[in-house]
Amino acid sequence: MDTDLAEVARDPRVSSVDFFRLLPKTKVDSPIGPTRTPNFYYRMSSTRLTMLAPSRAIRAQLPKELAPLEVAPELGSASLIFFRYDVCDIDFYTEAAVGVAVKPARHGRLGFIDLVAALKNDHLDTYVLSLPVSTDIAQVRGHDGYGFPKWVTELDVDIDDSRTIARVADDAGDTDLALSVPTPA
Length: 185
Hints:
The chain is of the alpha+beta class. The protein contains five helices and ten strands; from the N terminus they run H-H-E-E-E-H-E-E-H-E-H-E-E-E-E.
């Protein structure tokens, strides 16, 4: 977790590490012993699938203090995001996130106004329901270090210029969730 930035800069997949040279890392104690934080991600790819869902179904998954952000009356949104971290401080891993848009802490009366404001500011408050990852270190850093609902499973993510393919395995190793779509331009 104390990555040699000169070595990362030599990786042909990484365009630059200049930004990371400006950011200090802090040594912190954790359940796995001393670590350095934050984690840096130098080369990654992701894809997002956003769907409309009944607010009632979303509300049932949220802590009582949160409410779904509605795009229309009784209609919210949920997203499935797949990540592929090719070059990062904790080695290669893949991840899938299931999240729902929630009303911000200081929200207005109408969800549509909150939605427009979020889109205008390029910031949408999201509650993460699940976050499977493909490696033990990603699970430990994410769960124990940051409190995210992470667990390890077989998880494949391939994103190239023509196709995006992702698969998340269930406890038995069978396919729990799969996605295969053309990669948008």
